[in-house]
Amino acid sequence: MDLFSGMTFRRAVAAAAALPLVGGATLMTAGPAAADEEDYKILVVGETLGFRHSHIDDTTRALIELGADNGFTVDVWDPPNSSAGWWGSGSPGQPELTMDSSPFTSAEDLAQYATIVFASPVDNTNSLNPATPRLLDDAELAAFQGYIRGGGGFVGLHAATDTMHTVPWYSQLTGGGARFVSHPQQQTATMRVESPGHPSTAHLPAVWERFDEWYNYTTNPREDVHVLITLDESTYSPGNNAMGEDHPIAWCQNFEGGRSWYEGAGHTDASWTDPLFLEHVLKGVEWTAGVVEGGGNCVTFGEVDELVAGLNTSAVGDGVIAGAISSLLGSARTAADAGDPATAVQVLGGARSLVDHLSAAAGDRALLGTKIDDLVDWQSALVDDGPALDLSAEAELRTMGGKQYLAVRVVNQDDTAVDLTVTTPYGTKEFAAVAPTKNAYQAFATRLVEVPAGQVTVTATAERDGETVTEELVVDFAGTA
Question: Which of 73, 240, 252, 314 could form a disulfide with 261 if both were Cys (CB 3.0 to 4.6 A apart)?
Fold first, then answer.
């Protein structure tokens, strides 16, 4: 599945001046070991005892196709059943794909899956009546809990928050106890990326406008989860149970030894052919499976606070050091909450440097250090390096004199001169001091009869306010092969 055909992506590159860290801490990418490079397997759960979402079939097919292109296979648990209610009679399931029997037999059996995806498996327990049949019975739930606590992954999609309402543990797994409560009519709304460094959001625009069915939740999960994306309620009519200015819609967390990732959008069938949305979900799958890392790995300040609180401070000096780490974490959190990630990064550097001064008897210093590194990674992605350079670029294949050329044009729409480097599969060209409003053009000979699709990378550098600012644009071009 080609997710990016015909799209141009802009990404900022770190400026020459880096933020200093108190105590000389070293930034590291941290987290659990990634899965082996060999193919892995995931489980998609679409079993429905209540209202059945039409997207379940589309979601399943999309994940199977993504798996074929990205190194994983998919088992499906979505049997037909005769459940009935206001939504109609029974669920057709996906009999041609579903397994013969429930895979939720034991934690050991579930361990064959790198992650488990709940694709809107509604079970009609939102009445909170304990007598209502649940998606997972007690034995199946115990197997699932053992799987998560053994390091398993979980991906919740859309109505994954509208199932097992009578199981508080499950609502904590999906995120902070937040359960589906209502939604207005489907409409266009603006999503805002809050954690741009995470693998599942790194490719997204900061402001993402989509048409979907937007959920309101019983509670705001922010205190317990790492929020990835929020909804701007001023851009649509949220209806009853509106959540106000802070409306998380996608989040993730490290939960009881496992990894959990949730996206509340995805109700519309069209979501499952949307390249941006599919890449977002794919990286959620891969992150929970341990295949990709980064962006803070869904760490929260509360998660790190718990690690500090659990230190053994009986050894001389460890109590003082732990107290100082806790104080610095509090200051960093205050700065982060105030929208000052640069200060948060610097303060976290001080906390990180103190970890190495704890005695071995204090506990798992490596884990604590890794988690503080994750906080630094998360907050560093939020640091504003200043306004981006204003550039546009295009690339297309052209035939000249019977030969194929790749034509690249870059227009400097910024108010300062820029140096450009254009890198293609067929050569590189540098342009010095391209003035504002001017363009740089180069036709690269391919020397091919049939030219495959590819990418052009444009690197722009300029001096702004005494600092060197660098930006990179990636432009796709269609092939003739």
Answer: 252
DSSP secondary-structure letter at 447? -
216, 170 in Cβ contact below 8 A? no
Three-state DSSP state, 131? coil
**Pairwise CA distance, residues 164 & 128, whole Å:** 9
pLDDT digits (tens, 9 = 90+) for 95-147: 999 999 999 999 999 999 999 999 999 999 999 999 999 999 999 999 999 99
Closest CA to 451 of 407, 417, 405: 405
Is 9 a residue whose pLDDT tops 50?
no
* Alpha carbons 384 and 468: distance in angstroms, whole number: 15
What's residue 387's pLDDT? 63
**More confident position, 389 or 81:** 81
Find the helix packing angle between 55-70 and 275-288, rounded to 10°: 70
- Tokens describing residue 346: 């610097």
pTM, two decimal places: 0.76
CA distance 469 to 461: 6
pLDDT for residue 27: 28
Contact 247, 227 (CB under 8 A): no
Instruction: From 130, 124, 249, select the one nearest 183 (Cα to Cα).
Output: 249
DSSP H helices, 290-340, are: 301-309, 318-337
Pairing of strands 153-157, 115-119: parallel
